[in-house]
C-alpha cells in the first residue's frame, strides 16, 4: 500500500498541470486572442502600452467584484445583486462626499477639493453599506430560508431603485439643483482612483492575494469549499454553515461596494440609473469561465482572475476589430464565452466518456439552423451582406456535416453489426 | 434448464476509462427462473443489469432474447421487449401521484386527447391491489413509505406486461414486514411465469428466493451455483475470493465508568399525530463499551443519535450528561468540541465531500491542528491524513487521490478517521456498514473492537441484527420512538430483539430459517 503524502517528485509537475489544466487553457486562450488581434488590428502594434494599461484597468474593475462572486459561488450560493450593489454603493459614497464637502455662497457643496478625511469616511461608509447588504442577504437566506437566488434577486431589483430615490433625495436636500438623478464629485484625486490604470489594478491584485490566502490557506476557506460541496455534511462535521454564509455574502457585497467606489470615481459621477447595470452577470460569467462550478465546492481564485482577464481581452479584441459601437457587442461576447467555456468542459468529459452528440434528433437539426443564422447575421453586421451569406452557408454545411457524422457514429455504437429489434 | 434460454449473455464486457467493469461475462437465464446475482460492491452486478435493461447502451459482446440478438438503444427498447428494472434508488417522481407514476410516459387518454385520470386511477388501484399494497392511487408518492414506493415501481413493471423483472437490492430500505410482503409478491409474480433477476448483498434472501446463484467478482463471473447444492459459506468464499476469517470479537471487553448518561429524552415531532419522535429514552454508555441500537426503519435510531450530537431539527427535552457534565448541544460544532463524533448514515449525502481528496476529507474537522503561522500547512495536513490512512488501513494510492476513487468501505474508514482525529470520548456510528462489502465489514468490526478496547465509548445502529449481536456489549431496542427493550450480550437473541422491535405484535412471517450471515 502506498500512502506517501504528495506523491513522488516526478509526478509533481504532471499533477500541477492536471490540477491547473483549466488555468493553463485560459492562459493559452488569452495568448491566442492577443496574437490574433495583433495580427488583424493596428491598434495593439501602434500603442501597445496604452492598450495593455486599459485592458488591465478594465480587468481590475470587473475583477474586484468577480472575486466576491466567485467566493459566493464556491460556497454553494449565488449573488445576483452585485450590479445594483455597485450602483447603490457608488451613490452612498458620492452622497457622503457631498454631505461633507464645504458649501459655497449659493449653498451648493463644492466637491473639487476634498480632504483625505472625507475620502476615508466615504470609503468606510460605503464598505459598511456593503457589509450591511451582505448581512441582510445572509439573514434572508439562513434565517428566513429564502433560496440565495431569490434573496439576491430582490436586492438586484430593489437596491437600484432605492439608489435612484436616494440620490434624488440627497440632491434635493444638499444642493440647490433639486431632485436631479446624478451626484457629481469633481475631485481629481478621487477621479484618479478609478481612472489611473495602476490604482484599480493594485487594488485588484491585493484583493486577489487576500482571497487566495483566504480560500487556499485558511480553515475558513476550506470550510467554504466543504460547504459548497456538501452543505449537510459540512454542518454534520461541526462546521457553522450559517456563519460561513454570512461571511460569503458579505464578501460578495463588499467587493461590489469597492467596485462601486471605483466606477463612481472613474467618471466622477454617481449615476444609479445606469451604473453597474448587468454587471452581476459579467462577474458570474467570469467566475464560471474561470472554472467555478455553479453547483459549488469547485473553483480557484487564480482561475477567476484569468477568467476575468480572458473576458476583458476578448471584449477588447472585438472592440479593436469592430471599431464602431463595440459596447453593444459586449453581451454577445460574454454569453458566447460562457457557453463555450462550459461546453468545452463537457467536451473534455465527453471525450473521456466516449462520444457525446451535440446535435441529436430534431432539436439538434433546429439548433444547426439557429447557429448558422446567428453566425450569418453577425457576419452581415460586422463585415457585410455577402460575407454574411457566405458564412451562413459555410456554418450550415459545416455544422450539418458534424451533425451527420455524429449520427453515423452514434448509430454504429448502438446498433452493432447484426442488430435487429423484433 | 430448458433448451432455449430466455436470456443469453455472450462474452459481454464493459469498459470505463481506466476500469474494466465487466469482463467477458457469459450466462443464460431460463424462462421463469429466479437467478440471484451476488458479489461484493464493485463486482459489476449493477453494471450487468443496466446493460440488460438498456440503461447502458455501449458494451462489447452480445445479448440475445428468446434466441434473437438484441441491442437496446435505451430503456424503452428493453421495456418494449418486456424487461423492467427496479433500481436501488427508486425512479419515481415524488410530487406526482402513485397512479401518475405507474402510467408515466404511457398516460391513458380520453378520445379528446386529454388525460383520463379516472381510468388511470382505477388501473393503478387494480395493479396495487394485486401487490397487497393498500394505498390510495391518488396519494402523492413522497408521502408514501419506501416499501410502498417500491411496490409502485413493481406495479409499473406489471402494467408493462413485464416478462423479465430485474431487482437491484430491493430490500435495502425495507422493514421486515415489508420484506415479507415483497417476497410474497415475488412468489406470485413467479407463479405467473415472470423471470426474475435478483441482485442482493444479503445471502439469507438469496437462499430463500433463488433457483440459481451467479457470483461475480471484480467484473468476472466466478461461478453459477445451484441453490440446493451450495451454502452461504461457499458463496461468500467465492464472492471475496478468500475465507473470511471469523472476526474474533468474543474476548470480553472491560467497560469502565459511564461516559454518557441519557435520562428521559423526548424529541418532539411537530405536526405529526404521534407528537414525539422519541419518547422518554434513558440509557447510559460506559467507556470501552459498544452499545447497539436496534429497531426497524422509523423507530428513531437516527433521530436518537442526532439528539446526542446536537443535529436534530427540533430541540429535545431531557437530560444528557457527558462525563458527568450536563450538556445540551445546539449545533454539531458544540458536540464536536465536547468530544462527541457522529458518522452519519447516508455516507454520500451526509458524510462525504466528493469534490475533495482523501486527505482533505480526513482532516476537515481538525484543520486548526494543521496550521503554521495561522495558515494551513499542506505538509502537516498531509502528514496527519497519512497517519490515519496508515492506522486504519485505508486503501488509496495517495492522500491526494480523489475520495471518489475509493471503495465504499475505504471511504467509510476515511470518515471514521476524520472523527478519530477529533479525539472523541464517544463515537456514534449510524449504520456504518451499509453498502459496504463483506471483506471491508470485517475490517470495520475489528477497528471498532480495537477502538473500544482503547477506552472509546461507541454507539452503533444497524439494520442487520447479526451485526449488532456480534459486536455489541448491550443492545437497546427502539420501536416507534419508544424504548422497548435492553439486552446484555449474553441474553440478546435475534428473536428477542425482533420481538421488542415489533412490540410483540404478530410478526410477519419473516423466514429467518436459513442460515444467517454476518
How do the strands and helices of this protein lay out in sequence?
The complex is a heterodimer of chains A (422) and B (518).
Chain A lengths: L9 H10 L1 H20 L1 H5 L1 H27 L7 H19 L15 H29 L3 H27 L8 E2 L3 H8 L2 H20 L1 H11 L1 H6 L4 H27 L1 E2 L8 H11 L11 H22 L7 H24 L7 H22 L2 H31 L7
Antiparallel strand pairs in A: 1-2
Helix pairs in contact in A: 2-14, 4-9, 4-12, 4-13, 4-14, 5-6, 5-7, 5-12, 6-7, 6-12, 8-12, 9-10, 10-12, 13-14, 13-15, 14-15, 16-17
Chain B lengths: L6 E10 L2 E11 L4 E5 L6 H8 L7 E6 L2 E3 L4 H6 L2 E4 L11 H5 L14 H14 L15 H14 L4 E5 L7 H16 L3 E5 L3 H7 L2 E6 L2 E7 L5 H9 L17 E11 L7 E11 L3 E5 L6 H8 L8 E6 L2 E3 L4 H7 L1 E4 L3 H5 L6 H6 L7 E2 L2 E2 L1 H15 L15 H13 L5 E5 L7 H16 L3 E5 L3 H7 L2 E6 L2 E7 L5 H8 L17
Parallel strand pairs in B: 3-8, 3-9, 6-7, 7-8, 13-20, 13-21, 16-19, 19-20
Antiparallel strand pairs in B: 1-2, 1-4, 4-5, 9-10, 11-12, 11-14, 14-15, 17-18, 21-22
Protein model, in words:
The complex is a heterodimer of chains A (422) and B (518). Chain A is an all-alpha fold and 422 residues long. Helix content of chain A is 76%, strand content 1%. Chain A has 2 domains: 36-337, ABC transporter involved in vitamin B12 uptake, BtuC, CATH 1.10.3470; 358-412. Chain A is built from 17 helices and 2 strands. In chain A, strands 1-2 form a two-stranded antiparallel ribbon. In chain A, helix 8 (188-195) packs across helix 12, helix 13 crosses helix 14 and helix 13 (279-289) packs parallel to helix 15. In chain B, strand 14 (317-322) and strand 15 form a beta hairpin. Chain B has helices spanning 45-52, 75-80, 98-102, 117-130, 146-159, 176-191, 203-209, 232-240, 301-308, 332-338, 347-351, 358-363, 378-392, 408-420, 438-453, 465-471, 494-501; strands at residues 7-16, 19-29, 34-38, 60-65, 68-70, 83-86, 164-168, 195-199, 212-217, 220-226, 258-268, 276-286, 290-294, 317-322, 325-327, 340-343, 371-372, 375-376, 426-430, 457-461, 474-479, 482-488. Chain B folds into 3 domains: 7-240, Rossmann fold (3-Layer(aba) Sandwich); 253-339 and 424-518, Rossmann fold (3-Layer(aba) Sandwich), CATH 3.40.50; 341-423, Rossmann fold (3-Layer(aba) Sandwich), CATH 3.40.50. The longest helix of chain B is centred in the middle third of the chain and has 16 residues, at 176-191. Chain B is globular, with a radius of gyration of 25 Å. The two termini of chain B are 32 Å apart. Chain B contains 17 helices and 22 strands. Chain B is of the alpha/beta class and 518 residues long. At the A-B interface, helix 9, helix 10, helix 11 and helix 17 of A face strand 5, helix 10, helix 11, strand 18 and helix 13 of B.
